[in-house]
Amino acid sequence: MFTKRRAIGLAAAAAAAALMVVTAWSAGAQEPTAAPPAPDRGLYTLTGADTVQTRTQVVNSGVDVLGEGHGGGPMELIASPAQARQLRAQGYTLELTGDVEAMLEKRSGGPSTKDSSVADFPSGDEGYHTYDEMVAEVAAAATDHAAIAQQGSVGSSFEGRDLPFLKISDNVATDEDEPEVLFTCNMHAREHLTTEMCLHIVQRFTDGYGTDQTVTGFVDSREIFVIPSQNPDGAEFDISGGEYQGWRKNRQPNSDGSVGTDLNRNFSYKWGCCGGSDDNPSGETYRGESPASAPEVAAVQAFMDGRQFKAHIDFHTFSELVLWPFGHTTDDVTEGMTQEEYDRFADIGQQMAETNGYTPEQASDLYITDGSIDDWAWGTHKILSYTFEMFPSGGGIDGFYPPDEEIGPQTTRNDAAVDILLTNAG
Ligand code: LU0
Ligand code: CA
Ligand code: CA
Ligand code: CA
Ligand code: ZN
Question: Nearest ligand to the C-alpha of residue 265?
Fold first, then answer.
């Protein structure tokens, strides 16, 4: 009986809820309760996941974990009614705190009045760059600073959007023997603040050249590469329909009819090795069909294979963290990571975190991830590779959508950390 009802519920939660109401009426046993069915996408607070293992289980159960939570506190996540039931059956405590659809609509300024066929940020958030605006910004930087900035292409997204990069250095047209440093952004669709972080780096190291001494020194002695968006299809989808969609993955269709690969689980180093990703295509941490099966990942990997990067930051949101490899294991020292190398990661990570007030830790202190960009960058190329989780430190689904007034303060907040990375690339 219990099993049967649960099976029905897992198959179609809404239908099952309706069925139970009808049953109660016809049996005449009791009035149907007024409690509304749980929303399709409910925001939940989960407690009971106090270890890396249990947090990893939750993250890869198909649900959408928001931010990381510090020190193993409660987790905030988006789940369907069936997913919430399943997690409860596994012994976790889940409290429903909101309806994500309603929250996204509210954050987007109410029911959209915009042309739903056009991807644009909701009114009030125009300070963020759409894909076209980002492309124009990169092109303008190259045109306005032709002596130190040159534009190129990393490749194309699944839907065919160009993935532009900008190189910033003196004698920019020449591949000089200077340490190469890479900044990548917007791997997860809804993490729009990170696109702004990369554009801020572009602006700072181009406009500041010749006037700002620190900037000039780095531009003269380094080759700085910036990829403002690794997931333009997802980012455009996230702002389509005049309303934020809360989208994470890319927009590549899957065999089961669902859409999207989690790009930060699709990199080729120890892909799918360690329970740090989902093999279910509809899951939010779906690792893809094979290593680098996402065209965006294949493009970024090929680009990085073709250069000699010494240091790298991949910007994400949110939780205010500085993270270093490995994510696939909780071990500090393992194949591909000596104690000395680990200590260097931790030392520079802590130095950077001191400047921006983030929390520094190894990536797997949160939960296990496999197929992430920083594991790949270090594991295959020995690139000093960090993941930053930017502002805010918490805040549910709205954490992905800080008001555009935050762009200035939250990007300049990382200037000193970026400079520390550039210094240590030498
Ligand atoms: O990919 C992720 O899950 C990252 C964290 C890892 C780099 C450890 N968090 S995010 O998806 O919330 N940006
Ligand atoms: Ca605003
Ligand atoms: Ca140069
Ligand atoms: Ca070079
Ligand atoms: Zn992310």
Answer: 1
